[in-house]
Amino acid sequence: MTHVRITEDSGIPLVGSLYFGIIDRGTSLLQVRPSCGCNLNCPFCSVDAGPCSTTRATTYEVELEYLLSAIEEIAPFKGPGVECHIDSPGEPLLYSRLPELVKALKSTDPVTVVSLQTNGTLLDDIKITALAKAGLDRVNLSLHAVDPMLARELAGVDEYDINKVMGAAMAVAKSSIDLLIAPVYMPGINDAEIPKLIDFAKACDAGKRFPPLGIQKFERYKYGRTPKGVKVQSWWQFFNRSIKEWEKASGLCLRLDPNRDFGTFRRPSLPQVFKKGEKATVEIMAPGWIHGEMLGIARNRVISVYGCDKSSGQVRVRIVATKNNIYIGVPI
Ligand code: SF4
Is 3.40.50.2300 the CATH classification of the domain at 279-331? Predict the structure, then answer.
C-alpha cells in the first residue's frame, strides 16, 4: 500500500474526495475524515477496506493543523449547531492525534457536537479517558454480532475479540461519552444477533443523549464486498418488517430521524465548482484509493480521476459526478 500524507504544503485540498478531508452533504453535520485505512476485513465492507482488500491501493493521513484550518473555514458557513462526525472510510482510531483533533473541533465555533464512528477494536481505557477528556460527545460503535465465532467471521480477522469490544462499549457507556451501537443487519447472516445487540445496548445503558441503537441496512456497492448468503432487503422490508418487529419486541424507537434524534438540520452546501459533464484540466497530485485511479486538483477541489494512466502532470477530464462536492472525472 502507498501511504500519502496530506499537509498544507502538499497543495491537496480537503474538499472533493470521499477518502479524506471534509464532506458536506447539505446539513449541519460535517463528516471529518483525518485518515483512510482499516485494521479489519469485514466481508460486508461497503468500501472494500482492510489489509486483504483487492481494490484499495493507498492509505491517506491528513496533518492535524491543516484539517483544523479547513474546519475553521467551513464550519461557520454552516451556521450554528454544527456536528463534526469523524468517520474515515476505515478506522479513525488509527489516526494518532485523534484526542487532539476532538479537543480542537470541540472548541471551534460553531461546533456543538463531536462524534466518532469506530469498530471498537482499538478502544481501551486509556483512549476512552483521553477522548472523554477531549470532549467527545458520542461513539457510534459498529458491532454486528454477539456470538464470538460469527463476530470474528464478520470482522474478517482471527484476532477479533468480541469480549474486548463489548468491554470497551461498556466503558464508553460509563464515561461522559454517549454510546450508540450501530450494527449492519445482514438478513440470512446475523438475524439472531440483532435482538441480542438490542439487549446489550439496554444492559450497558447506551444512548443517554442520543438513541442507543442505529441499525443499518446492508446495501451492495460497486466497490464493496458482499458476504455469501446475504438476502438484500428493500427499504420497505427493512423498515416495515425488520425494524417494526424489533421495535415491538424491545419497546425502543429504532427508526431514527436525523432532526429529532441528532439535531441535524438542512443547511446551505458549500458552492459546487464544477457542473456534471463539464470538461476541465486537472493537475495529477497523488495516487487514488483504488487501482487505476489518480487524484487530480483543480479549482481548490480534489477530483478522483478513474482510468488514469498518468502519475503526474496535467490531464483533461470530463466531470461525471459532482454530488455533495465529491468530484469524479474520466480522462478525455
Ligand atoms: S466495514 Fe468498517 S471496520 Fe469493517 S473493513 Fe470496512 S471500514 Fe473496516
Answer: no
